[in-house]
């Protein structure tokens, strides 16, 4: 069973909250989050309730302060467990909304979308197999966006206010 523990203070101090499943609202359990311990599983933590705002991919391990998970602040208000997955990875990205314009099918990580796709605009996507993280900048930097299998007709459906992206990779460490 997956397990994650959120702590109010750095270095795993202060009030804490343990979670073993998706949680759309955590504000009642702690006021801020400055450290996280992932005991098992793979998780996505969100800055806002109901899986909104900044997103952070968290693998098994310890994060003694929010900079360690590339946090923009000490605010975590919801989390989602990434289900175990051992299958293939396949996703199709599109330059424009509603699956229009230039497109590219991917089955591997892509550290620089501009070099491979010849544009940084991704306005829609169809995740056919596996779980993926889309990153704002090349080499997996900047804001992160978690994509589960399914159709995303516009970039706002995965939580982004912009269609400009730099890289994407498969979520492969799910133990």
UniProtKB/TrEMBL annotation:
Region entry Disordered, spans: 156-175
GO BP: any one term: visual perception
Superkingdom field: Eukaryota
Domain Beta/gamma crystallin 'Greek key', residue spans: 2-40, 41-83, 89-129, 130-172
Record's keyword annotation contains Repeat: yes
SUPFAM superfamilies in the cross-refs: gamma-Crystallin-like
Region forming the signal peptide: none
Keyword field: Eye lens protein, Repeat
UniProt feature, compositional bias: Low complexity: 158-167
InterPro entries xref list: Beta/Gamma-Crystallin, Beta/gamma_crystallin, G_crystallin-like
Keyword Repeat applies: yes
Pfam families: Crystall (PF00030)
Gene Ontology molecular functions: structural constituent of eye lens
Residues passing through the membrane, by range: none
Family that this chain belongs to: Belongs to the beta/gamma-crystallin family.
Summary of the function given for this chain in its UniProt record: Crystallins are the dominant structural components of the vertebrate eye lens.
Annotated protein name in UniProt: Beta/gamma crystallin 'Greek key' domain-containing protein
């Amino acid at each position: 069973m997956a397990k994650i523990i959120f702590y109010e203070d750095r270095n795993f101090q202060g009030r804490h909250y343990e979670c073993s499943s998706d949680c759309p609202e955590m504000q009642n359990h702690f006021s801020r989050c400055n450290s996280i311990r992932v005991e098992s599983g793979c998780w996505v933590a969100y800055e806002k309730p109901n899986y909104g705002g900044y997103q952070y991919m968290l693998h098994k391990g310890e994060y003694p302060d929010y900079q360690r998970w590339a946090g923009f602040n000490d605010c975590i208000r919801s989390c989602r467990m990434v289900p175990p997955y051992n299958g293939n990875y396949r996703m199709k990205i599109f330059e424009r909304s509603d699956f229009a314009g230039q497109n590219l099918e991917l089955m591997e990580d892509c550290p620089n979308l501009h070099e491979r796709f010849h544009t940084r605009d991704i306005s829609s996507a169809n995740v056919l197999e596996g779980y993926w993280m889309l990153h704002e900048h090349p080499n997996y930097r900047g804001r992160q966006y978690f994509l589960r299998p399914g159709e995303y007709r516009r970039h706002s459906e995965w939580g982004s206010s912009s269609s400009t992206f730099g890289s994407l990779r498969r979520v492969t460490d799910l133990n």
